[in-house]
Amino acid sequence: MLTIFRWLLRLTVGLIVLGLISALLIWYFAIRSLPDYNASYQVEGIGAPVEIVRSTENVPHIFGESDEDVFFALGVAHAQDRLFQMTVLRRAAQGRLSEIFGAGSLPADDLARRLGLYRNAVTSLEAQDEPVKRALAAYAAGVNQWIAQVNLGAMGRGAPEFFLFPDQITYWQPADSIAILKLMAATASRSAADEILRARLSLASPEHGPEIVSLSGSGPVLQPYAALFPGARLGLPERRRGDADRQRDLIGFMAPGLGIGANGFAAAPQRTAAGGALLANDPHVALTAPSLFYLARLELASGGVIGATVPGIPAVLSGRNPRLAWGMTPAALDDTDLYIEEVQPGNAARYRGLTGWTEFMTRREVIRVLDGADQTITLRETENGPVVGSIDPGLRDVLPIGHVAALRWTGLSAQDRSISALIGLMSAGDRDQARTVLSGFVAPAMTVTLADAEGVAQALIGALPQRPDDHPTRGAMPVPGWLREGRWTGIVPATQAADEVPDMVIATEEPPGGMRRTRLDRLLQEREVHSRDSFIAAQLDTVSPAARALLPLVGADLWFTGEPAAPGTPERQRQDALRLLAEWDGEMNEHLPEPLIYAAWMSALQDRLIRDELGPLADDITRLRPAFIDAVFRNRGGAARWCDIVQSAPVEDCTTIARQALDRAILDLGQRFGPDVTSWRWGDLHQARHIHPGLGGRTGLGWIMNLTQSVSGGDFTVAQSVSLGRGPAPWQAVNGAGYRGVYDLADPDSSVFIISTGQSGHPFSRHYDDLAGLWRRGEYISMSLDPELARAAAVGTTRLTPR
Question: Which residue from 178, 447, 599, 700 has the least number of CB within 10 angstroms?
Answer without folding.
Answer: 700
